[in-house]
């Protein structure tokens, strides 16, 4: 539990339970990174689109999230670095798909799967 001699403890059992609940600090750091990744609205929108409509191209993502291609590409670089998405070549087109199942579960809680209309034209 570390050096507790310099701290005043009110309830030792609760303090130990709290330390156990926090767990490995590296895991806490990783989760903080996941929540930071989800905490920016543009990235969250991109992840929701990739999760529910992927694999999807940068251009199609840009239309869906209302950002330009360069901004989407920059966000996707970060998401690839966080290992949340991967790119796949489909002929001349690069498409992105979600790779982290835990992020996928979180995204499903944020926005349950909408009714999708693959093959229909965008009318917004």
UniProtKB/TrEMBL annotation:
<dbReference type="InterPro" id="IPR001845">
    <property type="entry name" value="HTH_ArsR_DNA-bd_dom"/>
</dbReference>
<dbReference type="InterPro" id="IPR051011">
    <property type="entry name" value="Metal_resp_trans_reg"/>
</dbReference>
<protein>
    <submittedName>
        <fullName>DNA-binding transcriptional regulator, ArsR family</fullName>
    </submittedName>
</protein>
<keyword id="KW-0805">Transcription regulation</keyword>
<keyword id="KW-0238">DNA-binding</keyword>
<dbReference type="GO" id="GO:0003700">
    <property type="term" value="F:DNA-binding transcription factor activity"/>
</dbReference>
<dbReference type="GO" id="GO:0003677">
    <property type="term" value="F:DNA binding"/>
</dbReference>
<feature type="domain" description="HTH arsR-type">
    <location>
        <begin position="23"/>
        <end position="118"/>
    </location>
</feature>
<keyword id="KW-0804">Transcription</keyword>
<dbReference type="InterPro" id="IPR011991">
    <property type="entry name" value="ArsR-like_HTH"/>
</dbReference>
<dbReference type="InterPro" id="IPR036390">
    <property type="entry name" value="WH_DNA-bd_sf"/>
</dbReference>
<dbReference type="Pfam" id="PF01022">
    <property type="entry name" value="HTH_5"/>
</dbReference>
<dbReference type="InterPro" id="IPR036388">
    <property type="entry name" value="WH-like_DNA-bd_sf"/>
</dbReference>
